[in-house]
Amino acid sequence: MPETIGFLKPRQAVLDRRREIVADLADLLPEGGLVSDERGLKPFETDAFIAYRRMPLAVVLPETTEQVAAVLKYCSRYGIPIVPRGAGTSLSGGAIPQEDAIVVGLSKMSRILDIDLFNRTATVQAGVTNLNISDAVSADGFFYAPDPSSQLACTIGGNIGMNSGGAHCLKYGVTTNNLLGVKMVLFDGTVIELGGKALDAPGYDLLGLVCGSEGQLGIVTEATVRLIAKPEGARPVLFGFASSESGGSCVADIIGSGIIPVAIEFMDKPAIEICEAFAQAGYPLDVEALLIVEVEGSEAEMDATLAGIIEIARRHGVMTIKESQSALEAALIWKGRKSAFGATGRIADYICMDGTVPLSQLSHVLRRTGEIVAGYGLRVANVFHAGDGNMHPLILYNINDPEEAARAEAAGNDILKLCVEAGGCLTGEHGVGIEKRDLMLYQYSRADLGQQMAARAAFDPQWLMNPSKVFPLEGRPAA
Amino acid sequence: MQTNFSPEQLADPHVAESETILRKCVHCGFCTATCPTYVVLGDELDSPRGRIYLIKDMLENGRAADSETVTHIDRCLSCLSCLTTCPSGVDYMHLVDHARAHIEKTYKRPFKDRLARSVIAATLPYPSRFRLALGAAGLARPLAGLLKRVPFLRTFGVMLDLAPSALPASRGAKPAVYAAKGTPRARVALLTGCAQPVLRPEINDAVIRLLTGQGVEVVVSAGEGCCGALVHHMGRDEEALKAARHNIDVWLKAAEEDGLDAIIITASGCGTTIKDYGHMLRLDPAYAEKAARVSALAKDVTEYIATLDLPEQGARNLTVAYHSACSMQHGQKITSAPKQLLKRAGFSVREPAEGHLCCGSAGTYNILQPEISAKLKARKVRNIEATKAEVIATGNIGCITQIAGGTEIPILHTVELLDWAYGGPKPAGL
């Protein structure tokens, strides 16, 4: 595919010193903590945004904060770029390296350090997976709320980098609303701590700034997160509609009426078929659009909330309503939904969009998305967090066909612009990465972006941290 | 995922198949989370996604295998946990099979590795040789510590460690037709196996007693050999296919004589391979159809017993931790049947945490990768012991040997407990 998204030109001085750098890094890390062999580096050339690939100079897999600090201190001294990597599940290319960069992979830092049920917090290393946190406290009746669909694999460090969301964030908020503190390493190896176990900390809310900074302000090595008590009960209910528009307008009316279920997820027909093929969750196959609405609480609470939702759904001509009858059925419903992106691989390659729009615009944007993709001669599957207006059109294409790949990318850009025009934004939870970087000027004024870049430079004056991401390559201040 | 193969490369049916498999992968990374070696080592190169990428790069470039790639493919347990997790349906099993065969063809291992692998391939699949080797191992055991200190002989030290201290006197079920009690309802062949009858002959005895007692005639065919799984996982394709063809001939002869309703397999590791005979021999015009027939007849013993609808038994005051072998749950996707059979037979069944993770046995893995294997064993035993069960049940001889080496809790084949519940003798060790 002809690449339309560029990377920074590699620093020749760094490339020239490759052997020396690798030898020096080997001294800073334990055995098995450095990948420098060309064959071994290859699998690190991309993440889940597979259309773009760049080989790194080396990959380090530290086991402690001190080792991360030593590597960053060394790299800042020699002006070597750093690309942090959690589980490499980014859909926006957030973990794609570049030829002169050292990838700092946190996958060996996967220990849970402290569980404090009395204060309802967990402190974990950054490489712990999102789901491992919930698993560790599940038997005690708690969970960690933000649940990206990739929660099985993605790390808490990556979640903080992208301020990740998930199906259940409609009620519980995204990562930033559930993060209490971090230990992080700055570009020069300085280790700082932000926040703590309390809900707010004195002084500037730097924690808020760090959450969603895409690995450009430092590398988080430990995080303290909120734990939430599990509800008495939870019940996902399937609502099938004859059209995407009626499903979309139903969502807007549910939220507009003041009802906040735990989750409202949307799938259109192609997405339903894909997910059913993998999970056999019992999704209705005779509808054009499906909402998974989860209610929780006591039986009486769930019944009452559900009655209100059903009444609204009827007004939008709901065709089928199916309540999950067992814990197993509920688990399958979520398994299907959360595997949607990967399961799409059964039928095609895809680019996953991540625009967010006001709910009043949901139906309009859904319709226009279909028209845009069809205009490029491609197919689309929609599966997303409808309650938040966080849309994920999956543009289906054949990655082995360069011309088709170029059309898919162009369609994606048009969809993201559409989201901005509708009063929304480019990214709900996947981050800007490289994917949406060049559209940032469509979202922000030069002054808006300038202030963000100034904040970034305050943390990393040399622009060494994940440098090709987030901000358009032109118009950056001189480092 | 994007692939880059020339039409000439794709003319090779093995490469063409791998290309189709690779095209399904979308690099989502879900598989990393449930891969035992990634969980233990924390390096993407030791995860399915990393290995898929290494294999893709090697095959696309038509390159001989290199030591880096071999290291990470060798560390793969072939537990197939990734196959269960993958939402896109990437057929990792056949991709890694191809990679292993490619490695075997194009890579020259260091002499000590070649020696160890040849010794394994020449011993384990042959019960008489294996028995002899274990006898010798009993005598040589005091040397284990010494051998492990000599890098060149380390693998042999590990083998001595793994060998049981005493062998059962019984030689296990002889080739014969074991008549059904009462009116025969079905006729099945039983694969008695290679390592299993040497280590635990009671398992086949229990199967024959249980099945004949339920009106099933059991044929143990003369001349049946190793299923070929062991050499197949070492990339020794020709040897594996030879073993497969041999067994296919033996079983189809039994089928032609008096008909066969199923081929019963008591080690799930073998079951996964026999169920794959149809695929392994798909390119062999003389055997493709026969192999597919055998694969269709192949049933794990618990999978088959579940079809017999055994009566519910009264509750026994015994808690059983059920350990699902990887080849059972991931390879053959048999997940609930063994547990339901045990419950129906009156046992109280407990499921250990992290049940999807391998115990580290994985065929010859505990010999060839002792460090990772030991870590997985310790983790598995910790999870099993946390259930506070009185006995462990599983359906694979490899897991039985591996887990028995790490815990005092007795471990049995599921079918030994079922046989006891339906009138057989109380299993030894309980």
| Contiguous runs where pLDDT drops below 50 for at least 5 residues of chain B | none
CATH topology tier name of the largest domain in chain B: Rossmann fold
Question: How many alpha or pi helices of chain A?
Answer: 17
Q: What is the radius of gyration of chain B computed over CA atoms, rounded to a whole number of angstroms?
A: 21 Å
Counted by DSSP, the helix tally of chain B is 26
CATH architecture of the largest domain in chain B: 3-Layer(aba) Sandwich
- Overall form of chain A: globular
Percent of residues in helices of chain B comes to 40-55%
What value does the average pLDDT of chain A take?
96
Structural class of chain B: alpha/beta
Distance between the termini of chain A: 31 Å
Unreliable parts of chain A: none
Notes on the structure:
The complex is a heterodimer of chains A (479) and B (430). Chain A has 479 residues and is of the alpha+beta class. Among the domains of chain A are: 112-229, 2-Layer Sandwich (Uridine Diphospho-n-acetylenolpyruvylglucosamine Reductase, domain 3), CATH 3.30.465; 234-341, 2-Layer Sandwich (Alpha-Beta Plaits), CATH 3.30.70.2190; 348-437, Alpha-Beta Plaits, CATH 3.30.70. Chain A is built from 17 helices and 18 strands. Chain A has a 7-stranded antiparallel β-sheet with strand order 15-12-14-13-17-18-16, sandwiched between helices. In chain A, strands 5-6-10-8-9 form a 5-stranded antiparallel β-sheet. A 4-stranded mixed β-sheet of chain A has the order 1-2-4-3, covered by helices on one side. In chain A, β17 and β18 (393-397) form a beta hairpin. By secondary structure, chain B is an alpha/beta fold. In chain B, 53% of the residues lie in helices and 8% in strands. In chain B, the strands form 2 sheets. Chain B has a 5-stranded mixed β-sheet, sandwiched between helices. Chain B has a 4-stranded parallel β-sheet with strand order 7-6-8-9, sandwiched between helices. In chain B, α5 (48-60) packs across α8 (92-106) and α14 (202-213) packs across α26. Classes of the chains: A alpha+beta (479), B alpha/beta (430). At the A-B interface, α13 of A face α3, α5 and α6 of B.
